[in-house]
Amino acid sequence: MQVKCKLGGVLAALLAFLSGLAQTQCPNAVRIEGTVTDPAGAIIPGAQVQSSDGEKTTTDAKRQYVLPCAPVGTVKVRVEAQSFDPRAATVRTRAGLVAYANMRLVIATVTTDVEVRDDASGMDSDRGTGTTVLGSKAVQQLADDPDDFLRQLQVLASEAGGRPASAVITVNGFQNASALPPKSAIASIRVNPDLFSSEYQWAPFGGGLIEIFTKPGADSFHGALFFTDSNGVFNATDPFSVTATPASKQRYGFELSGPVVSKKSDFALALEKRDIDEFDVVNAVTLDDNNNPAPLQQTIAAAQRLWSASARGDWQATPKDVATLSFSSNLNNLRNQGLGGLTLAEGGYSSEVSEYDLRWSNTLTPNPNSLHETRIGYSWKLTGQTPLSSAPTLQVAGYFTGGGATSQNLNDREDDLEVDDDAMIIRGKHTLATSEKFSTVRRVVRGRWDRCPNLGRSVLIRTTGISSIPVSDL
Fold this sequence. Notes:
By secondary structure, the chain is mostly beta strands.
């Protein structure tokens, strides 16, 4: 008991000493107290409170703060907290009295700055709601596999309505459908811009729009070798297959870019090979030798071999004139297609598809208020299809489909020519954009040529703050 009394006496003496010390350090001091809350009255712990004489403190878990050494007179108290606008108040203090200053902070205003980078492309700057713009860094975070990469872009485009697979893909402003360029060569991707802009030949009602813009070669030499493997050991077997179906996918190739003449011309090359081994599983009911129904299960390999190559060169004729020439090819060889389910092995076919694109573009900027683009593209596509059997097709609903393939032989060639001429002039708050387009498609199927010319002209006048108004669309 005596020990406890002695300990209590020591603590009382210590508190009295500290109190006297505080009074000595803050002569004629006035105490300021208050609370800090958000607009709803909730507490804001950890808010920074500072008086005009330099005294600082923070709010506790009960939203309260104390400034014990405020001077007599007029004192300004400032409060800051994360995600809130700072607030200051003037407090009048009197000797011997405690002053109170309660603060209610307002949620900070968020400001977004839009930066136009040198990789931004396109004639029309008026973009509709829901537009998604992916820069080069965001593109690199998407899937490396071209098939998965395409599906990700199609999902983004489906926000505009329609089926994802019906999304229209354009590369560097060319309206004709294109295969995806190498991911490393992409500068930016714009998904679902203003679909009714004058720069587009027609609105893609069946799906969204995916605009891809490639970048020139690097100022210094850059290259890469890559190899990815999805081995069949890690893939599950089809539940309807009686044997293992080790589906696998290998992808390998190289990329190289660099200057030809420093700050004048550059190049970019890419070559890729994909080996995809998949299987078709037949699960049907046929007749045995005694004409009795007998289940039939078959597992048939359906291999795909794909080659893709691209080459691009940029040349800066003058500081205001840049020309680009590019060539790309895509070869796709597929075996045992159209099988599986109720379709027997003899009902399949093999196909070979090759697509080539040769494109030239020129961009001229006579002055900061005008821009002129000319694009010429020529594409040709060859499609060959060979059935595994030329016998008549036999279908028994709900049981099996046998005989020859329904499509039989196919030899299709398509030639596309596209010429685009776009111009844009800016005067103050007004923008005048014009677009001249010519395209023709020529196809031959089993020896017959069909020609489908398509001409287009459109003019667009835009004023800042007013939506786009099409003047004519012929």
